[in-house]
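Recap quiz, item 2
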Amino acid sequence: MGGEAGQGLQTIGGALAKVFSRNGFHVFTHQDYMSRVRGGHNFYQIRFSDRRVTASRDVLDILVALDLNTIETHRKSLREKGIILYDSESIKKKFEEPEFIDVPFKKIALDVGKNRVMANTVATGAVLGMLGIGLEALEEILKTAFKKKGEEIIEKNIACARAGYDYTFSNCPRCETLRLQETENRKLMLINGLQAIGLGALMSGCKFYSAYPMTPSTGIMNFLASKAEEYGIIVEQAEDEVAAINMAIGASFAGVRTMTGTSGGGFALMAEGLSLAGMTETPVVIAEIQRPGPATGLPTRTEQADLLFVLYAGHGEFPRVIFDPGTPKQAFHLTNKAFELAEKYQVPVFIQSDQYLGDSQWTFEDFDPGRLIYNGYRLREADLEGSGEYKRHAYSGTGISLLAVPGEAGKQLVVTDSDEHDEEGHIIEDSETRIEMVRKRLLKKMPLIRKEMEAPCLYGDASPKIVLVGHGSTYGVIREVVDIFSKEQKISMLHFSEIYPLPERDRFDYLEFMENTDLVVCIENNATGQFAKFFRAETGFEFTQLITRYDGRPFTVENLKEELHAYI
Amino acid sequence: MPTFEDYEGQVPTWCPGCGNFQILSSLKQALVELGIEPWEVLLVSGIGQSGKLPHYMKCHTFNGLHGRTLPVATAAKLANDALHVIAVAGDGDCYGEGGNHFIHAIRRNPNVTLLVHDNQIYGLTKGQASPTSAQGTRSKVQPFGALSEPMNPLALAISLDCSFVARGFSGDPKYLTELMKAAITHRGFALLDILQPCVTFNKINTFKWYRDRVYKLEEGYAPSDRLKAFERALEWGERIPNGIFFKNSRKTLEELIPVIRENPLVRQKFSPEDTKRELEKFY
């Protein structure tokens, strides 16, 4: 579906994606939008299938054109026997070729709904008519969407959807080939990466989220704000990202689980605060949702070019953890793990992702709430009884000190400092204490944290000739490409979502695995191969083959396949 | 009841004669007189000579980054509004590096007390002009004198309808203690700008300079009139008024957030079980 910003693509796309998932289809959606509120060219791609779909494609079966630009831009992507759905009156141009079906969205909306705004509902109904998917699910969705506007509006929208449906169902002979068989009678979960991160935070007990709005990270703040009242969460819009991270640190020090979120430019402002979290051993979870830079870059598009930045950000040396999920389900569980590790080790933990995964919706049978970890590490008066005088930064074998809640821990005082400090938290400058504190804060903790990291995911052939290596949001596209090539090749994917520190190799020696494979290709959505550089720095392993994409767009199945033909 | 000794911390490393000593003792005195126990207070400070103050006391302490006291203090108050949260900052710290946070903390109006050690100079970095230095103040990095107009923190705060605006002087610790008590007990964001000499780097605004100019707002002055308060805040030079310039009873940030109306955030129980219904909403 294509059109200008403000024409309602998200309404139509969102409704259709839900209709498909409620009808038992697997769905993958991808949004390609410009940094503007009105006009321009936006694009909303939906794939659905009886099999799992996890990536964007370059070919289209149906193109819904809300403006002429969409036809001109995407007509070439239409598959043979594909169909373009449009309203000649709205776009002021009539096409006579057989692939076009002209449906008077606006006229039907006016005739049936008495309101041209309902043209989008007509279009949604028309797509379902083409596919022969019944309107039951759409009716439910319309009832929920227009609940506040009253019965009449709901009835009119349903009538408009029905009229759109009837029009294409009976006036489109070419649509016959698209008519779908019934799928399994099941409902699937439909969720995008940002919602999954927000949900993960909510279900991990996040009580405070402070951020400055920044595309593409704002969806997390929107999600948590919508749950604030029901679950007792404070969502504070900070005056800048410097304040955002300092607030997250302040509330965490005071005793609640906190998170902040931003994109690369905002994170640049957080670097000093990150270092403060490291020094004061204050747990904090940071979502860094990448978009292409440098500077403002391509604000609504996607890239994986902040990995090294997040890895090295902040002055001085302190521990950190970086996760980069490959699917919304991983995003959910890794956000939960981020809260667990942040509090267990009293360190900053990153959920790094990007616009592509953030805005893409996937379907799942379910998430696994049974796998959620929730340990309260924050101590109160009763927990501290008999432990003597409390010292916030007391030395210990693991480097982890007790984390008390100020004011809730009896008369014990909680003191910390961004200056180097002693066990109590007071400012010092002597070399012995400095050495002990670096050992405690960094050197003792890091090996323990490494043990918590899961091995990379191996998908495909267990002893392949070709292995495609990816991290973060490239999971879906690499997986589909592996499926395609595996008919003729011994091929597999090695996907890293728990990035830093790299997991130990005792359970799965991924290094040996790659060394024993003929062809190893690292695939990254950036220009310089940041993951490959990072991996070499950490392990000494050098990727000789690199496929990159840095035009601000994600890899598509066709595009990655094409790139791989150079090797395979 | 707490005693002065309960608040005794490390031995200060400030220069002998520094105005900070009186600020420190006035703060301890104010807390003792108010009957506030050390474990009921969180001091949040930044970087600068003022930032070290909490180490010379005994209470919960977060000594954070330069300029970032107010975001930390605001959020800590939101997380646990049962604590008395006092932010301690300097003129460079709060009005320079943290100027944006100063403006927005006033707008938000958390029930936080802000004490600004205002010596009109940078001490820790050795004598550069601060946002409150007089125009023309010469230093190693201002060879032509400070080029900018000094900031008037009181006038700025009043223009933003700050909930409590006052000025004190380290040379009158008794009155300073009274002002601190008023600021701490005020419901809402309270700014107390404290004039203090820097004996090492500020050779102009000396103890004598302040003592000759400072006077108390007259008895009968009503701090409820914002325009009058603004007018008095502009008074600077030969005569410098001290006292409570302005007060209002704006709702605090905490009062406007329904989720902490009953219980501080830190006391709210969480169980993942209670959130499971959220998963259903994605089908």
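Residues 151-171 of chain A form the longest helix (21 residues).
Residues 189 and 364 of chain A are 5 Å apart (CA to CA).
End of item.
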